[in-house]
Amino acid sequence: AQSVTQPDIHITVSEGASLELRCNYSYGATPYLFWYVQSPGQGLQLLLKYFSGDTLVQGIKGFEAEFKRSQSSFNLRKPSVHWSDAAEYFCAVGAGANNLFFGTGTRLTVIP
Amino acid sequence: ETGVTQSPTHLIKTRGQQVTLRCSSQSGHNTVSWYQQALGQGPQFIFQYYREEENGRGNFPPRFSGLQFPNYSSELNVNALELDDSALYLCASSLVQGGNGYTFGSGTRLTVV
């Protein structure tokens, strides 16, 4: 069965510091992997996706993620966080082509 | 290029009532999926429609039903509302059944009292 684990419920970082959000997945085949961001009261915006090929994926807003098959991980990184990055971040795995399984999210707080 | 639009943005219903939520897909997208996001949780897949037919369903009872129209817009219907149905309902559209990722709307916040 598919599942996604985001072990950090809440992370606080200082503006300008680096960021890594963890994501581990369970899926029987090569997964489609996604990171979405959600601001309060809003829908989900796609940051980046991995389908195949280069395991380091670049996304919007300066985010990147690395697919590590041996660790079943797809961690999200950003070298320097901006105050506008404060939001909820969701990792998701695509179950074939039909639907996405989401983790429970990580809430990011950015302090000045 | 228009995004995914959902209506209404907020809705309050009484337990036992029925509700219809609407979604207009992004231009050119032929697949629509619906998700339920309870407070503090990640979205959960309800079902997907492709070419006006249900094409996959999550662990939701039959009182959750849907429609997709020829213009690829969609409806989510929920009968016999329960308090636990209170959530943000998200619509997501995609091309070719999600192969290139999904575009989400801003959601409809449903409160059941």
What are the main properties of this structure?
heterodimer, A: 112 residues, mainly beta, 4-stranded antiparallel beta sheet, 54% strand, B: 113 residues, 7-stranded mixed beta sheet, 11 strands, 0% helix
Question: Pair with the most extensive interface?
Answer: A-B, 23 and 28 residues
Give the overall shape of chain B: globular
Distance between the termini of chain B: 37 Å
Largest sheet of chain A: 6 strands, mixed
How would you describe this structure to a colleague?
Chain A is mostly beta strands. Chain A has strands at residues 3-5, 10-14, 19-21, 24-26, 32-38, 44-50, 56-58, 64-68, 73-78, 87-95, 99-102, 106-111. In chain A, the strands form 3 sheets. In chain A, strands 2, 5, 6, 10, 11 and 12 form a 6-stranded mixed sheet that branches. In chain A, strand 5 (32-38) and strand 6 (44-50) form a beta hairpin. The mean pLDDT of chain A is 92. With 113 residues, chain B is an all-beta fold. Chain B has no helices and 11 strands. In chain B, the strands form 2 sheets. In chain B, strands 2, 4, 5, 6, 9, 10 and 11 form a 7-stranded mixed sheet that branches. Chain B has strands at residues 5-7, 10-13, 19-24, 31-37, 44-50, 53-57, 64-68, 74-78, 87-94, 103-104, 108-112. Chain B is globular and about 35 Å long. In chain B, strand 4 and strand 5 (44-50) form a beta hairpin. The chains are: A mainly beta (112), B mainly beta (113).
List the helices and strands and how they pair.
The complex is a heterodimer of chains A (112) and B (113).
Chain A: E1 3-5, E2 10-14, E3 19-21, E4 24-26, E5 32-38, E6 44-50, E7 56-58, E8 64-68, E9 73-78, E10 87-95, E11 99-102, E12 106-111
Chain B: E1 5-7, E2 10-13, E3 19-24, E4 31-37, E5 44-50, E6 53-57, E7 64-68, E8 74-78, E9 87-94, E10 103-104, E11 108-112
Parallel strand pairs in B: 2-11
Antiparallel strand pairs in B: 1-3, 3-8, 4-5, 4-9, 5-6, 7-8, 9-10, 9-11
